[in-house]
């Protein structure tokens, strides 16, 4: 487990995200996901209140990703588009396939070999799924070379508009948290893969009046964001397999980078064992959370054990964990 922090992040300001909640509300299946209070965990961790934003079922899919994919495709498909293409560790590709079917579009999804177990679930949404013998970052490069409209949840120079719409779509999750009466978080913990969700979280909390500490968590074997933060510039890292498939990214989104660099209070890495133990713990408390989502609990435990002062936390603080995926029984999805 490695830790990085910077002072002054809560003073950094940025422009707010557009209001996309109205779009999501226009979809027939829309309903806010639960914000679950876990007083037993709050007591165990020595804080006043602890909540889990439970994204285990969003539009009938087992993750938050559809918030971004649906909004981005709604914005991007304005002309004669016949098919879309993406690369995925699992949940993003399934979300793109779900929205493509709603819009009457063909969909091709490239799945890196380490996430091959997700292929049947994506195919069940009507997509043409191809498992490719490479890792996530190379799969993204392959998708970018395909014909069709690329709907990718990471950005690089020259490809930023659709990733920005995806980030904007994620803001609905945070607007739902805002709607809970008498809830002002002191710490929000978010999983980090390429950094797009973290960009959405930073945008939300660095553009409004509520300014909690923001903690990002990565897989220990795929800590591209923390490597970049330590270097002060974007750094690519080699990754190895992890149960946190959605966090197995070695290249940080170029669009997210300025937000991560300036607006994130702290970053921590966790092991597979820590994320799996946290998933089991949340399951016992009635929250379905896979390794990527449960990594936030492992991160909060590390932060509260040794870094309270850095984050401005006390025994009366309110902590919110963003649990981004459902618990799974077998294979990374």
Automatic annotation (TrEMBL):
One of its GO terms (biological process) is alpha-amino acid metabolic process. Residues 29-322 form the Tryptophan synthase beta chain-like PALP domain. Keywords: Lyase, Pyridoxal phosphate. The keyword Cell inner membrane does not apply. Its cofactor is pyridoxal 5'-phosphate. GO terms for molecular function: lyase activity. PANTHER family: DIAMINOPROPIONATE AMMONIA-LYASE (PTHR42937:SF1), PTHR42937. This is Diaminopropionate ammonia-lyase.
């Amino acid at each position: 487990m490695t830790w990085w922090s910077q002072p002054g992040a809560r003073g950094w300001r940025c422009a707010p995200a557009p209001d996309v909640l109205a779009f999501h509300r226009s979809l027939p299946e829309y309903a806010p996901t639960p914000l679950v209070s876990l007083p037993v965990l709050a007591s165990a961790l020595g804080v006043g209140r602890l909540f889990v934003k439970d994204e285990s079922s969003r539009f009938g899919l087992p993750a938050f990703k559809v918030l971004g994919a649906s909004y981005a495709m709604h914005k991007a498909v304005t002309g004669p588009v016949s098919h879309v293409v993406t690369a995925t560790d699992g949940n993003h590709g399934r979300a793109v396939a779900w929205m493509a079917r709603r819009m009457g579009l063909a969909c091709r999804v490239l799945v890196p070999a380490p996430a091959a177990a997700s292929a049947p679930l994506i195919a069940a949404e009507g997509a043409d799924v191809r498992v490719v013998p490479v890792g996530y970052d190379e799969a993204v490069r392959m998708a970018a070379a395909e014909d069709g409209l690329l709907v990718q949840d990471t950005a690089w120079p020259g490809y930023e508009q659709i990733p920005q719409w995806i980030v904007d779509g994620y803001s609905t999750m945070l607007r739902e948290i805002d709607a809970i009466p008498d809830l002002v978080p002191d710490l929000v913990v978010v999983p980090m893969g390429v950094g797009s969700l973290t960009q959405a979280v930073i945008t939300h909390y660095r553009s409004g009046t509520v300014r909690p500490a923001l903690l990002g968590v990565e897989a220990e074997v795929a800590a591209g964001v923390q490597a970049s933060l330590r270097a002060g510039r974007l750094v690519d890292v080699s990754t190895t397999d992890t149960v946190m498939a959605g966090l197995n990214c070695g290249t940080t989104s170029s669009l997210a980078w300025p937000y991560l660099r300036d607006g994130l209070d702290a970053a921590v890495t966790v092991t597979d064992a820590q994320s799996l133990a946290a998933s089991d713990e949340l399951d016992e408390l009635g929250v379905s959370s896979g390794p990527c989502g449960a990594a936030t609990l492992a991160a909060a435990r590390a932060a509260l054990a040794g870094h309270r002062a850095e984050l401005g936390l006390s025994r009366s603080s309110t902590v919110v964990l963003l649990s981004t995926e459902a618990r799974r029984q077998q294979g990374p999805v």
